[in-house]
Structure formats: C-alpha cells, structure tokens
Amino acid sequence: MNVLAVGAHPDDLEILAAGSLALYARDGHRVTMCVLTKGDLGSDTHTRAETAAIRRAEAEESAAVIGADFFCLDQPDGFLFDGPDVRTRLVDVMRSAKPDVVITHHPDDYHPDHRAASRIVLNCRQLGLCGLVETANEPTDTIPGVLYMDTLTGIGFQPELWVDITETIDTKRAMLRKHASQNEWLKRLHGTDYVDYVDRQGTLRGLQIETAYAEGFQAAKAYPQPRDPGRLLPPSL
Amino acid sequence: MNVLAVGAHPDDLEILAAGSLALYARDGHRVTMCVLTKGDLGSDTHTRAETAAIRRAEAEESAAVIGADFFCLDQPDGFLFDGPDVRTRLVDVMRSAKPDVVITHHPDDYHPDHRAASRIVLNCRQLGLCGLVETANEPTDTIPGVLYMDTLTGIGFQPELWVDITETIDTKRAMLRKHASQNEWLKRLHGTDYVDYVDRQGTLRGLQIETAYAEGFQAAKAYPQPRDPGRLLPPSL
Amino acid sequence: MNVLAVGAHPDDLEILAAGSLALYARDGHRVTMCVLTKGDLGSDTHTRAETAAIRRAEAEESAAVIGADFFCLDQPDGFLFDGPDVRTRLVDVMRSAKPDVVITHHPDDYHPDHRAASRIVLNCRQLGLCGLVETANEPTDTIPGVLYMDTLTGIGFQPELWVDITETIDTKRAMLRKHASQNEWLKRLHGTDYVDYVDRQGTLRGLQIETAYAEGFQAAKAYPQPRDPGRLLPPSL
Amino acid sequence: MNVLAVGAHPDDLEILAAGSLALYARDGHRVTMCVLTKGDLGSDTHTRAETAAIRRAEAEESAAVIGADFFCLDQPDGFLFDGPDVRTRLVDVMRSAKPDVVITHHPDDYHPDHRAASRIVLNCRQLGLCGLVETANEPTDTIPGVLYMDTLTGIGFQPELWVDITETIDTKRAMLRKHASQNEWLKRLHGTDYVDYVDRQGTLRGLQIETAYAEGFQAAKAYPQPRDPGRLLPPSL
Amino acid sequence: MNVLAVGAHPDDLEILAAGSLALYARDGHRVTMCVLTKGDLGSDTHTRAETAAIRRAEAEESAAVIGADFFCLDQPDGFLFDGPDVRTRLVDVMRSAKPDVVITHHPDDYHPDHRAASRIVLNCRQLGLCGLVETANEPTDTIPGVLYMDTLTGIGFQPELWVDITETIDTKRAMLRKHASQNEWLKRLHGTDYVDYVDRQGTLRGLQIETAYAEGFQAAKAYPQPRDPGRLLPPSL
Amino acid sequence: MNVLAVGAHPDDLEILAAGSLALYARDGHRVTMCVLTKGDLGSDTHTRAETAAIRRAEAEESAAVIGADFFCLDQPDGFLFDGPDVRTRLVDVMRSAKPDVVITHHPDDYHPDHRAASRIVLNCRQLGLCGLVETANEPTDTIPGVLYMDTLTGIGFQPELWVDITETIDTKRAMLRKHASQNEWLKRLHGTDYVDYVDRQGTLRGLQIETAYAEGFQAAKAYPQPRDPGRLLPPSL
C-alpha cells in the first residue's frame, strides 16, 4: 500500500499520526510525508528564512526515522490559502506518491493552516486523475481514500477508527524529538513538554480501545468511498 | 469470528444485512440470527398466532440458507419495549453466541420495534459480562463491538462502513424469498416487490463504493470501542 | 415562477435535478440553467479548448430539450474559486433570470467545484438587490430561496424535500444522453453507464416516497427564509 | 385534508400550533385535537381531579373556536410513558381521525410529557394500518406524515417549514384565553402573560420569513416520507 | 449555592466529577450526592446484597471526604428504568437538596444505567415545583440548571465548559480510593488502575484549557435555561 | 478585561451584541469595536464613497455611546474575502486591543461578509502571538477566547450562553438609532423598523432565560479553550 500523509507544518504529522505512519512502515508500506508550509513562523529567535531551514532539516530527519519520502511545498506559515498553484503542486506530489490512502488534518482543527491543508487535500483528490491537469508526473488512475487525523487535544473530534500505537510509541517520540527547535519553543509558550503533550492525547485514545496508546482517525465522506476504510489503516495486533 | 445479528422482525436481518451475513458464513465465521418479536402483525388474512408460526418457519428456513443459528425472543410485534425480561433473555443469547460483533438496527430507523431493538441490544452489551446477572449460559469475558445496519430506504442514515455484497446478492435474494408471506403482503401494501425493493438500496450503496451491490453500516460509539471496527466486517475482494 | 439552476459543470444539473427542471418547464415556469465552469477537464482525448467547446454545445442541446435558457460563466474546471469576478458575473445572471428559487449544489458534495459553486451561489443571494453592485442588468427586488440538490450517490446528504419525477424520468435520460462525450468518458473511468448511474439514485429516492423515481432537495437555512420552501418545488401528482 | 394534532397537555397545541390549526380550519380541512394527559398537575389551588375537569372544559372550548374534534387520553400529567395501552388508544384515535398529517411535539422539547408524546405518536404511525391491532375503529389504509411543532421558546429547534399565521393570530390568542386557569397560574409562576409569551415566539418566527407572525415546523424523517412535506401545511397568502 | 449530583452507580460521580464537587465544597457550597442504583452487579465474588452493602459504605465514605450529603435510591444495577416510582423518589431528593444546579450523566454515555439516569434527571427537573406531586418534602420554587458530566473516556462527548481541578485532583483520587472493591475488580476486568484511568482523561481535558487536570461539562439545553450556565460551575483560579 | 468585537458591517455589532457590549462598558471593561468592511453597499441614494463616509460617522457615534474604541478595516462591502492583507491588519488591531475575548459573527450567519468575518477572526486568533508576523504593534502574549454572536433572526443558531441585557436595552436602542441611514433604508427594503426588529429577537432570547431582553452567544471550540467561557461574558444581575 502507498500512504501519503499531508500536514500543514513540519511537526504536525508527527504529533497526530507518527505512531500509525511507523506501523505502515513496519509493515512494508511506502510512506510519503508532505508538508505544505515552511513552518517559518515557528521561532522567536530566528528569522523566517532561518526558521524554515532549521525546520526543514528537522522534518527530513524525522521522516528518515521511518524511511519515509519527504516533500515540502514551501507555502508561508500562518498564511496557507487554497489556490491554483498549491493545488497543482500537491497534485504533482500525489502523482508521485500514488497513494491508496491520504492522511491529513481534520477540516475543523484549531489552526488556520490545518483547516486550509485539509480542504486543499480534499480538493485535489480527484484532480490527479485528469490528464488535462498538467504536471511533471503522469496522471494516476485511482482516487485515494482520505483519512482525517485527530485534532490538537481532540477538541471538536470524535474518532471513528483507532490505531493501537503501543508498539510504535517510542518511534513516535523519537520522531517528535527531531523537532528540537519547536519542542523548546512550545515549552516556553505553553509550558508543556512536547512528548508529554502528545502522550496525554495518545493515552486517552488508548483508553477508548483498552490499550496503552492509540491514534484516532475519521474517514472523509465523499464519493467514491473506499470500500473498507478501516482496512486502510494498520491493523492492531 | 462469532457474529450475532439481532433484528426486530423475522425478515429485517435479511432486508438490511443478509449479503454481509452470507459473506461471514462463506468465510467460515459462526453466524447467529436472533429475532426479538414474533412478527405476528404481519398479515391481513391470518390470526396473530398463525402469523407467528408461519413467520418463524420462514425465518428458520432463511437462516438455514447460510447455516446460521436462529433464536426468536417471542416479543409482541409492534409493541416491543425494553425491560428486565427481554434484556435477560437477550443476555442469555449473547452468552450462547459469544459474539465478537453484534449487528442490529440503527437507533433512528423508521419502525418503533427497530428503534427499541437497537436500544435493547446496546443496553445489553455490558451485561453478559456480569456474573451476578444470572441466566442459563455462563457469563462471557468480552464486550462485543456493535454495528448498526442501514435504515429502511436509508432515511436518516449515512454509512461509515460498506460491505461489497456483489458476490452474495443472490444468496440475499434467496433468503428474502423464504419470507414468502411477507413478500406478498408488502407487495399489496406498498406496491413494491420485496427483492426489487432491496435491490434498489443495495445498488445505490454499491454505487457509493463503485461496485454492483453493497450494504452500509455504522459502528456504535461507546466505550470500550473495538480497535478496528472496519475489520469486524467481511473484507471486499 | 422563475427558476435558476446553477451547476459547476455542464452535466451536473442534468444528473442531480433534470427531472425537477423538466417538471417546472412542463408547468410553464421559466427555467434558466447556468454552468459556472467550462468543464474543460472532462476528456482524455481532446485539448481543454476543444473539450470546452464540445461540452458547451452538449449543454446547450440539453437545455433546449426543456426550453431552458442557458449561461456559462467560463471558469476553469477543477479550479473554481469564489472571488469578486465570478460573483459579479453570477449576480448579473441572477438579475437577468429574476429567480424565485435558485437550485444549486450541496455545500458538502464530493467535487471541489461543486462545493465552490454552492458557496458562490449562497454568497451572491443578497447582492442582486444592491444597486451599488453594478452589472449590465438592473437590480432585482427580491431575495430568492435557495435549494440544494442531492450529492453524487447521496453521500453526506439527507433529503428534506422530494420531487416525484416518474413523469419526467425519460426527459431526464434524454437530457443526460446529450452529454455524449462525458457519458463515454465516465463509462471508461468508473465502469458505470451514465443513465444507469443516475437511475440507481433516482430509484432509491423514489422508494423513500413510494414512487418509481424521485429527486431529493434541502432548503438552505438563511435569512430571509422563503415562507413555503416545499412550494418552491413542483408538486407531485 | 384530515389533520390530527396531538399534544401532551390541554394547552400545548394552542401555544405551539393554534395559528396553523386555525388556517387548516379556515381552508375547510377537518381538524382533530387530541391531548394525551389530563393536565392534572396544572394548579396550586385545586385537587388533581378538579384540575383535570377544569382543563378538559377549557380545552374543549378552545377546540370549539375552530370547530375541531377533541379527544383526551386521560394519562397522568408529568408521568406520561409510552406503553401498550396508550399506543392502542392513540391508534384508535388515528383510525377515527384518518389523518393525512399528524402534528405533535418535537422529540427534544423541554417537558418530559412533550418528549414522551412525540415518541408515542411516531411509534403509532404505522400501527393504524395493521388489522391485527384491534381497536374500536377500522384500520386505516395510509401512513400519515408527521410534523413536529416548535419547542417552547425555540430552544433546540430550527424550523424547516414556516406557516404565516398573521391572519389567524387573533384566533390563536382567543384559543389561548380559553385556558384561563393556566394563564393565571403560569403568570404567577413565570411572571409572563400567556399571550405575550406566545406572541414573542410568533413574532421572531415571523421575522425569519418577513411577516408579522409565524409558526415553525419540522417534518419527521422516517420511511415512508410524504412526497411534499411542505404541502401538508397551510399555504402562506 | 446548592449542588445536587446524580450518578447511576456508587462510583460514577467520583470518576467523572469529583474534582469539581470538591471545588464546590471548598468554596462553601452545599453538595448532595445521590446514587440511583445499588451498584449490586459490581462484584464477581460477593452476592448482590453483599455487593450493595459494601458499595453503599464505600460511597458514603467517599461523600464524607468532601462533607457531601448522600442518598441512594436503591434501584437494581444494570436494570435502571425511568418510571413513576423512581421519578417520585428523585423529586423528593430534589426538594430536600434544593439545588441551583443538578449534575448528572450525559444522555449518550456508554452504560445503560448512565443513559437512564440522565433521562430520569431531566424528566424530574420541572416536577419538584408542582405541589400536586406529593412527596415527603415541600415543593421547591425554582427549576435548577442541569449540567452533563463527561462520558467514560470521552467517547461521544465534547466539553462546552471546563473546570480546572488541578487543586483538587488529590481529593478526587482520595475519593476514588474509597471505592476499593471496584478498583480491584475493574483492574482485573480492564487491566487498568482506577486512578490512572481517571488521570488519563483529566490530563487531556486539562491540556484543552492549558492546565494540569480538568473536568468537562455540557449544559442541558431546555427551557428555562439558566442565564449564566458557566457560572454554575466553580471558577478556575 | 479587554473585549474586542469584530463585525462585518458598521451596524452588525449593534444589532447582535450591543446590549452585552454596553454591560462590559458599564462594568469598567475596555471595549474595542472593529468593523471589517466600509458598509458601502448600504444605500440606494448615495455613491459607494458617500455611503462609506456616512456609515463610518454613524458607527463612530454609536461606539462613542459606550466609550468604545473604533476601527474600520475598509474592506469592500459584499466582497469580504480572507487573505494575507486583511489578516495582517486584523492581527495589528488585536495587538492593539489585547483582547481577553473576541466577539464576532457566527460562521453560518446569513450574509457572505458575516461568514467571511467569522473565519477571518478565527484564522487570526493565534497569529498575534507570532513575533515573525510583523505589524505596527507588539505581539501579544495570550490567545483570546472567541465568542460567536447570534445570527440574524436566529436562523441556524442555538445559544449556549445568554446575557441578560434588560438593563442596557435602551443603550442598545440608542446605538442602533445612530445608524440612521441604514434604519431608513432597511425599513424601505424589509418593511421592518430596525429597533422593532432587534427587539423581537431580544425578547425571545429573553424568554429563554426568563427575563425581558437577552442576547445569545456560542463559544468557538478550538484549542486552547478558555477555562471559563461563561465568565468571559458580563454576569446577569
């Protein structure tokens, strides 16, 4: 199976889905991580260009932990808008990754860029198929299922599907620690340790299915529907 | 896997889930069909007792098509109410069938008995575990997942999970035809042929996942949640 | 009554509402069909310009079947975005068609252009009234009711209002067959015959109201509300 | 058209739907008002039996204003529960009134008896048809549409359908004034004049459709659906 | 302020609201804890009668930690149903506790007794006022606001209101530990330590408002609405 | 407390929240009123530039009634779109007003500019904090809570929080009367007096909490959540 995960900022996929991505990788599926913005607002000590460079390196290191391919579409942090250009670029990534499933943000998550990312992904879902949308890569011949990740701290979100990530929680933490610049900054801003923060959400999602750690997902409801949305995710043991 | 399907009337499980039940049976899972009422309002030519006897025989023949076990809890048609007695009897059936998954009506389906059946099933979900609820069978040691079937003609229902039943649509039709008394009666009442009726819904659910025939389901949202609700249903091919 | 139907692509109105539009026409109401994009992605053998020309001709022929006026706003297929220009053009169409009711896509339908079309229509609803929005036509003096069509295969949609189209199903099929280029292309893409496809949805909507074929609608909830939303649609016989 | 309105207490139909009932009567439709409980908690000066007698007389006077038939099913106020007995009695009323449409409380209205009344009505909808449910009157041969009235002060309710009652607001007030015992009691309890109270809600519902006074309704979503739910209500002028 | 908390089983209020109840008590409000069932299914080693006695003692000790009054309505565990008797008994408790606010289960929580408790509370809300409902205590003269607690593990629940319980988390744990019989039993059943279990949910609710521990609530939507639902809960510091 | 109210047009805040804003001011809180568009479509006798000038003066006079600061972001009426420029300007206003709470339109209100305003506000909520978003004012160090106002005539809106504005209803009316140009125009357009119009909605919201006049609000659900959303609003007396 080919899996494409699309996040708004360089650390979002790690926070919300790294346990599941690590399971896909463990099971031999091909994982591609694509980040839409440069994350260049994520600092109070560096310039935007410096921040972008630091975060790209961190994201690449994190993707390397599970052997995932990595793309960044270089949109401006805090100002991600849907439009012809970003759609065309994402269609090209989709044609490269040839996903059976695309994992992205929930449309009502807390951050404007998360909400925009979710809409951009859904809006591109059919376009990869259309030969008349010209990009570097060849058109695909299937329309992937779309799964929404949990929201930050779960506000406004109810999982429909759970993945037991107890086995990969340490990989998830390792990926999160690669985002060292953010971990420090957010700790100062919110007084919360990054890993502790993510653990709190994973531990409640785990409780819901009676395991130690889990991640929650919803399947986007849109024609054509994948037949077995629950089988697009890695199985529990 | 053990599958318990609980319907309000002797033909409901056939109309809404027989294609999936046939797939379970094909895959070697143990299927139990349990009907809560006698269906004894389903006639305009027989007495209630005669109707009950006719319909029980039809339902048993239908269950036999896929080799399912059959139970009827003998509640009065049109007047199914939750209460200690029906709960205790259903708990006993659950302890006999030892289901990994229970399939039943959606809580907002059109018929009062369907709505009552849905609530009774959800209300019994934890009770099988409690040794102090005494019934003929031994307590179970797991809490099954609960899946809701589609509603009649799909009003008020959006599938979350689909099962491709193209392979078993003929078995479904064969099971429906066992309910000969109802088929004739409903044809007079609604001017619709039973099988045609069911085909119309299956064909649209099929279109949603790009196959010929499908059935739709939702997973009940209640603690503890099964880890992989989508894997409680038979896989598409 | 004046009816304005606004679709994203040249065949959308036919798929989702042609039976009702034909009933309006039959009853002597004035029907205007307006398509926002050129549909110029709808081919794998022609150029975008050729495709646009072919599809415009097909749409005009289809509108002619029921004697409807036809407009195309020439936006790019797959890349329909709300903005000042498309709003102003649609306001001008609304001032020309002077609708009592506007029929358009549901805001959560599967295709990005459908979702955009739905929002653009709702966003233009009040603007026709404002004399200071200058267009070729004179301002209107009423705010029309807005009705949303069903979604493709009904995913994410529950009808509030049904129109019995048994009498016009053949007209609907005739209009669909005018879109010959799409019919062939979609058949190759999805393996589904266009007319069969549409029949499957019409037949289930029909079952919900106990007739052969129906189309489903919802009324947009927005001030000012039409007093009798159900009377904005053609009556069943 | 035959209209059956079913309220929980002797004044509920007047508060929430009298304007529409008066319009039905004006248009020559046959209106039946059925009250499920005796309203015998509605006093702080009389006994329950006295209160029941007073309120029955008031309700009959109110029904007489529009020439409606009147039934009371004599259930205890504050303790209305669904059950075989009340269902059978209501089925018999339905077989007598032969309604094309049944108007009742919204299932989430504020009072336990309102919520119970709503469920009892929906639960009886199909039963009138079944010959094997024996009551004094003959079975009906149609399943009526069900419309829910607004909730008290509109909490938890959004109208889908509006009726312009400007023409019958005075009749509505006249019917309300027949419930003199309640008007006085509620004035002491809530400090609100009955008619003023009802006017406040009617005036906002009116504003939503740009008229002076209106009442709001929703159609119950249940198979089989009436084809034209909006045409089950009296037309605006 | 007088606070009445109504739970289904002897430990439910502790699991879902003890942090907030402890804050009320700290602020000098009068807290009454009322449990509807005896909790007599909560054992696999004792008889029902023994279990009821053990759990009553545990619940009384827990209530004593914060100086709360305690009532148990002695309904059977697993078989709690709404009815005239339990309503009348709860009305009497409400007349004794004279609550400004009643805290109870969410209507869609996982356990049948939780769902029944929620409905019973809402159904009794107005009845305390009616002099003609006779109980040992005098009628109240106000209708309290109703707040719903979180569900177990938060499935199907989104908080509208949060209480920061960081200051009383240790009191909450102390109250939970009084339910020693359940703590041991649930540990065997679900493999989860009681306190750890509750901490996981409190820690995520805390994260949502950027504190260490929190509890979440919703206000029931029903006329008459308390003016300041957020002021019915203890303030954060 | 610092309160920032953001409306789409120069009179929206008065219609939907002036009673609450007046209460904040009475209690000594600092109130800032920010209007996103010039309201320059609001006339059928003046040019757009004249209309903008008239309405700005009216809005300033209205703000002066309660001593509120006033900003206008000069976007075009009827054509308000989210984008980098309007976001940056609003972030700068937020950094100037330093709000503890931001009050704005509901995301589904009837007018396109109201819906856009709601989204723009939510999209700017976090950005004030980011030092790398450069504006004239210094970054803030907190993320404010966001409250949504009622919709026009309450369509599609259910209050979660109510403010009793009986004490400030006359101030609200006085502020509305400052918008003389609109009052006259809307009277011609909708046949409704401005103040009467607003009174109708206030009187029903008042009825819901048993007072004379009220305004309704909802708290936006987004991380991080304010701990006590109900305490962000002025208390009832």
Number of helical regions of chain A: 7
CA radius of gyration of chain A is 17 Å
Identify the quaternary structure here: homohexamer
Approximate strand percentage of chain A: 15-25%
| Distance between the ends of chain A | 18 Å
Approximate shape of chain A? globular
Mean pLDDT of chain A equals 95
SSE topology sketch:
Six copies of one chain form a homohexamer.
Chain A: E1 2-7, H1 12-26, E2 30-37, H2 48-65, E3 69-75, H3 84-97, E4 101-104, H4 112-124, E5 145-149, E6 161-164, H5 169-178, H6 180-190, H7 194-208, E7 214-219
Parallel strand pairs in A: 1-2, 1-4, 2-3, 4-5
Antiparallel strand pairs in A: 5-7, 6-7
Question: What report would you give on this structure?
Answer:
The structure is a homohexamer of 237-residue chains. Chain A has 237 residues and is α/β, with parallel strands linked by helices. Chain A has a single domain (2-232), classed as LmbE-like (Rossmann fold), CATH 3.40.50.10320. In chain A, 41% of the residues lie in helices and 17% in strands. Chain A has seven helices and seven strands. Chain A has helices at residues 12-26, 48-65, 84-97, 112-124, 169-178, 180-190, 194-208; strands spanning 2-7, 30-37, 69-75, 101-104, 145-149, 161-164, 214-219. In chain A, strands 3-2-1-4-5-7-6 form a seven-stranded mixed β-sheet, with helices on both faces. In chain A, helix 1 packs across helix 5, helix 2 runs antiparallel to helix 5 (169-178) and helix 3 (84-97) crosses helix 4 (112-124). The longest helix of chain A is centred in the first third of the chain and has 18 residues, at 48-65. Chain A is globular, with a radius of gyration of 17 Å. The mean pLDDT of chain A is 95. Chains in contact: A-B, A-C, A-E, A-F, B-C, B-D, B-E, C-D, C-F, D-E, D-F, E-F. At the A-B interface, strand 6 of A face strand 6 of B. Chains A, B, C, D, E, F: It holds the Pfam family PIG-L. Chains A, B, C, D, E, F: One of its GO terms (molecular function) is hydrolase activity, acting on carbon-nitrogen (but not peptide) bonds, in linear amides. Chains A, B, C, D, E, F: This is LmbE family N-acetylglucosaminyl deacetylase. Chains A, B, C, D, E, F: InterPro entries: GlcNAc_PI_deacetylase-related, LmbE-like_dom_sf. Chains A, B, C, D, E, F: One of its GO terms (biological process) is glycoside metabolic process.
